[in-house]
Design the sequence.
């Protein structure tokens, strides 16, 4: 099967075969089907043998609106979808790709051809065979309708399926992030026979999914729970270990703490409880906390400037604001130490792209005051220099905005902090744009081309589009680096482009990275293997087991 | 109730039903425009939640939900749907609104019903006790308790009930509506659901307990001084019979009036309590609809609520006529 535009591309037979063959960079072996813990399990000690059975009571904070991420990327959906619907690959805690529906893969040296060997003998939950047609169709759906997939797969010109167990993705230009974008929660593979000829947004599969995953969808009682049952015919023989997953939704944070305390829950990502409650809840007997497993999201709290404001066009003012905010204190007071102060806009957790040579600007009130004086904004009689309007994404909590407001008050900037519910915030920031500063919470994702480029690339200044370049930042050098990094197939050269990007952004004080916040998973200590990859509790849970 | 009065009641009900139609349509149109005043729409909310969007996906969402049409056209579309007995489709849940509401309505009604029963039984009992001991220490202590119930917000009471009965004592579950996956039937299922319902109904009820206790107390004290009570006493009736048949019954008129008004309030309180107890009811659906700007769902719930208030008011009229034959059913 091929995408509609395939005829613009030479067929595989007419292409020099050598280029493809010579270009095999890495071919992973078929994953062994022997039982036991996976070789890439996080636990360094010799793990005890997993046991079969048990019900996992899994909390998803808010009720998802659909259970498949084929056209939707909301957090709650990402938690549930991968249990039923799998992806081509999955990733260990160091971002190394591991086989899932694909057993082996290779990339041509020009970065334009990706070849996937698909797992044989896999069946959809309705009994039909999983084939390369499903892969080709899913990638087409992702390219056409997935909020991020439109970008990730934008340069896909065709997906060829020479045999039922081979899929070849052809690109018009390199997409170096492609191989990290194939996790089940980002790029799910759905059944062609279910989606063909329908709108993926309204397909009934979203409410009662059919997948190839370790768990079979049983019921979804709206407002109450979802039940997933063990798939006895799962391709990874012996797995999953759990009999059943009961997914519950608890909207109130304090009620979540209580449910953990009463022993009604086994596992939850998030953090599911307020930072202030984390220490108490994770100290409960039998309860543990885990901060790994959120690298795929690359969470960040950033401060963006509105570059249409003359005051903020002055770099000295932006630098003064940077010096006025004590990042370590912000981390300790507002986030209870769960995270890391970030010098620039790339999360320190994205080790492949982060520049460790940069240091945060540093808390220095004297320098901040001097810079503001130099910029021509002396203090008035009442001690203030000028006023700025601050918004904050509610994911950052009101406390983060209050902290910035008080920090800036010390250098004479009167901050009018306005806090809204999420929908209002999105509308006011990205459509209304009547802000001077906004405390955003934009994930880096697994690759900065997808997570970081959107807010600083001048061509992504689009009024009305959430999470676009609301700053209206425009810097030709930054544009050049972003555009080059987006298509550079060589990992070393690409890393250098991102390091250069961080240096330019840092020197220009284009935006403040502030904090790379930690996600926190709360778990019953009897639950094992809940965090074995960068997607944490968004994984398939095929390996999760419960100690008797 | 005598049979002679029955046709009059039916006539009154018919009039209420006729008056309800313009009232409800007015409420709907007002709500429709009020909701337009909130910033953002369902497409913005969905795109925002997704954490990513492109211009194309956003435009596709807006046109799919009809959000790119002029406001009046949207209103016309909604009213024409209503005329065909359809509440529309929720963009967020991708389900007909009527189905969504029907799935949640029984839960909310049973929660409200139980809360009202709790409030009336506990409130009237407390009030009767307070009136009997008026001015004495027992009255004072109960007054303070009632004042506490009145002033403590229901979500906090809910959390404290959870801490006490679920976390510390382990008697009742912290939230939900039934034991998930237990597949109980018959009496077991009823008992199971009751266990889940006690705490939310109680936290919803306590505020009203305070009101009914005060109302009952004051009215009973007032009624006690009236002539018919003195007559009853003079007839030689026992103090208990006097209190029950002559004092309490007359004192209940204002309580039932208030209970009718409060039913609408209970629905508002249900939003908070259902959130704390993860109760799969209409209140939480309404809350989620507000947060997700899912206006079709919200309008559906508001329509239902206004119908409910109209129906309850009619029922209260009839109930009062039964309690006090001097009151005519209009």
Sequence:
């Amino acid at each position: 099967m091929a995408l509609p535009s395939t005829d613009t591309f030479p067929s595989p037979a007419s292409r020099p075969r050598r280029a493809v063959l010579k270009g095999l960079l890495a071919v992973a072996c078929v994953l062994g089907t022997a039982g036991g813990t996976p070789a890439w399990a996080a636990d360094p000690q010799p793990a005890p043998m997993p046991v079969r059975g048990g019900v996992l009571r899994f909390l998803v904070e808010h009720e998802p609106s659909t259970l498949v991420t084929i056209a939707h990327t909301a957090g709650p959906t990402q938690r549930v979808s991968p249990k039923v619907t799998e992806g081509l690959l999955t990733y260990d805690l160091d971002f190394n790709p591991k086989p899932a529906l694909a057993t082996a893969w290779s990339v041509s040296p020009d970065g334009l051809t990706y070849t996937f060997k698909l797992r044989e003998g896999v069946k959809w939950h309705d009994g039909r065979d999983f084939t390369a047609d499903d892969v080709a169709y899913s990638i087409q759906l992702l390219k056409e309708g997935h909020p991020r997939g439109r970008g990730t797969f934008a340069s896909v010109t065709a997906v060829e399926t020479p045999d039922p167990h081979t899929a070849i993705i052809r690109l018009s230009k390199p997409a170096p992030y492609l191989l990290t974008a194939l996790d089940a929660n980002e790029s799910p593979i759905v059944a062609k026979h279910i989606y063909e000829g329908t709108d993926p947004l309204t397909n009934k599969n979203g409410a009662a999914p059919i997948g190839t995953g370790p768990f079979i969808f049983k019921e979804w009682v709206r407002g109450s729970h979802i039940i997933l049952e063990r798939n006895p015919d799962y391709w990874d023989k012996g797995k999953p270990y759990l009999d059943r997953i009961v997914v519950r939704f608890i909207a109130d944070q304090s009620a979540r703490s209580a449910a953990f305390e009463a022993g009604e829950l086994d596992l939850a990502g998030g953090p599911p409880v307020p930072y202030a409650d984390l220490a108490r809840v994770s100290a409960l007997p039998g309860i543990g906390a885990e901060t790994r497993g959120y690298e795929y999201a690359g969470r960040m709290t950033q401060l963006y400037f509105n570059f249409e404001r003359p005051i903020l066009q002055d770099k000295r003012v932006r630098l003064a604001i940077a010096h006025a905010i004590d990042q370590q204190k912000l981390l300790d007071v507002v986030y209870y130490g769960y995270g890391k102060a970030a010098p620039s806009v790339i999360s320190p957790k994205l080790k492949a792209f982060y520049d460790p040579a940069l240091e945060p600007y540093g808390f220095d009130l004297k320098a901040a005051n001097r810079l503001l004086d130099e910029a021509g904004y002396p203090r008035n009689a009442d001690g203030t220099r000028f006023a700025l309007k601050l918004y904050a994404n509610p994911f950052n909590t009101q406390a983060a905005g209050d902290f910035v407001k008080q920090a800036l008050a010390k250098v004479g900037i009167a901050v009018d902090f306005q806090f809204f519910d999420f929908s209002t915030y999105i509308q006011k920031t990205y459509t209304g744009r009547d802000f001077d500063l906004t405390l955003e919470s934009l994930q880096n994702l697994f690759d900065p081309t997808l997570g970081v480029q959107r807010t600083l690339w001048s061509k992504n200044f689009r009024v009305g589009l959430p999470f676009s370049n609301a700053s209206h930042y425009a810097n030709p050098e930054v544009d050049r680096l972003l555009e080059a990094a987006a298509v550079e197939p060589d990992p070393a050269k690409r890393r250098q482009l991102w390091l250069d990007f961080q240096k330019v952004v840092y020197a220009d004080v284009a935006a403040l990275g502030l904090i790379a916040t930690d996600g926190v998973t709360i778990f019953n200590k009897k639950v094992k293997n809940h965090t074995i990859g960068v997607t944490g509790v968004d994984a398939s849970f095929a390996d999760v087991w419960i100690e008797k | 109730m005598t049979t002679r009065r029955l046709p009059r009641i039916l006539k009154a009900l018919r009039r209420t039903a006729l008056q309800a139609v313009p009232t409800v349509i007015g409420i709907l149109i007002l709500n429709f425009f009020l909701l337009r005043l909130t910033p953002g729409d369902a497409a913005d909310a969905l795109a925002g939640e997704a954490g990513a969007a492109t211009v194309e996906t956003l435009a596709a969402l807006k046109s799919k939900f009809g959000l790119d049409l002029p406001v009046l056209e949207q209103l016309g579309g909604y009213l024409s749907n209503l005329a065909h007995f359809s509440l529309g489709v929720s963009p967020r849940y991708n389900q007909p609104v009527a189905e969504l509401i029907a799935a949640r309505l029984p839960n909310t009604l049973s929660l409200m019903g139980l809360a009202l029963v709790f409030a009336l039984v506990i409130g009237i009992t407390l009030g009767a006790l307070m009136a009997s001991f008026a001015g004495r220490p027992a009255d004072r202590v109960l007054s303070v308790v009632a004042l506490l119930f009145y002033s403590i917000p229901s979500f906090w009471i809910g959390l404290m009930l959870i801490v006490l009965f679920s976390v510390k004592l382990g008697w009742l579950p912290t939230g939900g509506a039934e034991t998930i996956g237990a597949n109980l039937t018959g009496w077991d299922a009823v008992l199971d659901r009751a266990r889940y319902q006690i705490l939310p109904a109680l936290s919803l009820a306590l505020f009203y307990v305070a009101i009914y206790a005060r109302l009952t107390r004051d009215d009973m004290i007032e009624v006690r001084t009236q002539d018919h009570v003195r007559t009853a006493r003079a007839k030689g009736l026992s103090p208990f019979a006097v209190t029950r048949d002559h004092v309490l019954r007359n004192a209940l008129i204002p309580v039932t009036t208030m209970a009718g008004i409060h039913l609408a309030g209970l629905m508002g309180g249900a939003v908070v309590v259902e959130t704390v107890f993860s109760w799969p009811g209409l209140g939480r659906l309404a809350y989620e609809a507000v947060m997700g700007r899912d206006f079709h769902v919200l309008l559906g719930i508001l329509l239902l609520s206004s119908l409910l208030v109209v129906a309850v008011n009619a029922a209260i009229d009839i109930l009062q006529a039964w309690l006090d034959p001097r009151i005519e059913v209009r």
